[in-house]
Design goal:
This protein is α/β, with parallel strands linked by helices and 258 residues long. The chain has a single domain, classed as Metal-dependent hydrolases (TIM Barrel). 34% of the residues lie in helices and 14% in strands. The strands form three sheets. It has a five-stranded parallel beta sheet. The chain has a three-stranded parallel beta sheet with strand order 1-2-5, with helices on one face. β7, α3 and β8 form a beta-alpha-beta unit. The radius of gyration is 17 Å and the shape is globular. The model has no long low-confidence stretch (mean pLDDT 95).
């Protein structure tokens, strides 16, 4: 029997992120087909928008998030829920996590955040201490965490003190993500992600498993992640989205702590 149910996908992008390919409706159909109970729609924060090397990187604007959070709900007859989320950017400068100009604090069910290496957001350098300090600034910013899941924390271009980042995330109640897309398309990261899982287990931290879907067919695809979870015998009870109930418990903790 598979111990890893993974009934909720915590990291999905829709057409609103511009470089993703599917509508919310298409994602719902795909989620239903693979047996998901729900997924978190976490389109990119507006600050991702930039021009680099002659190419414009588009991102949704704040008006999109306001409409999504205040007016959208999944069709009741589809059998799949949609949690309202956003993927924030961790910055290499204050305020450390990309802000919204209007107050969205009570509109999202959860927020996720990660490093996206564009010059206006985060210029990583080959210095573990420097990069770790910046991540700790983001993790510890404010009286309450500014985000609930640290996305794709492992990168060959971003040397970090993994023990320190895991410890601080655990202390703040932040789950570390196992990103299935990274495992499928950046296979060289698998040994580092395996090591992260072992360290998270050892310190009693928690993970979230996300597809990082950019098209409907990727929603709920956790195959590479499950292989790694099985390899290290990772405890299902430390996976916040293993079941819909465990995910609701995680969300309830966020409300209590906020």
């Amino acid at each position: 029997m598979n111990r890893y149910k993974l009934e909720v996908d915590t990291h999905c992008h829709s057409l609103a992120s511009h470089h993703a390919l599917s509508s919310i409706g298409e994602m719902l159909i795909s989620a239903q087909k693979v047996g998901l109970s729900a997924f978190a729609l976490s389109d990119h924060h507006p600050s991702l928008h930039c021009e680099q090397d002659g190419m414009v990187i588009h991102a949704p604007d704040e008006a999109y998030f306001h409409v999504f959070c205040t007016r959208y709900s999944a069709p009741k007859d589809c059998g799949v829920g949609v949690f309202k989320s956003v993927e924030l950017n961790i910055l290499d400068h204050s305020p450390w996590v990309s802000p919204f100009y209007r107050d969205f604090n009570n509109l999202f069910d959860l927020t996720i955040a990660g490093v996206h290496q564009f010059p206006h957001l985060f210029s990583a350098i080959d210095n573990e201490e420097h990069n770790t300090e910046i991540l700790l600034n983001a993790i510890n910013e404010g009286d309450r965490p500014q985000f609930n899941i640290l996305t794709h924390p492992i990168s060959s271009d971003l040397p970090l003190n993994m023990d320190t980042v895991i410890r601080e995330c655990t202390n703040r109640g932040i789950a570390l993500e196992v990103n299935n897309s990274n495992l499928e398309h950046k296979k060289h990261l698998a040994p580092l992600i395996k090591l992260m899982l072992q360290k998270v287990h050892a310190c009693g931290g928690r993970i979230a498993v996300g597809s990082d879907a950019h098209m409907a067919s990727e929603v709920g695809n956790f195959s590479a992640a499950i292989d790694l979870l099985e390899e290290v015998n990772f405890p299902p009870e430390l996976i916040v989205n293993n079941t819909l109930d465990s995910f609701y418990l995680f969300l309830d903790e966020l409300k209590i702590n906020n």
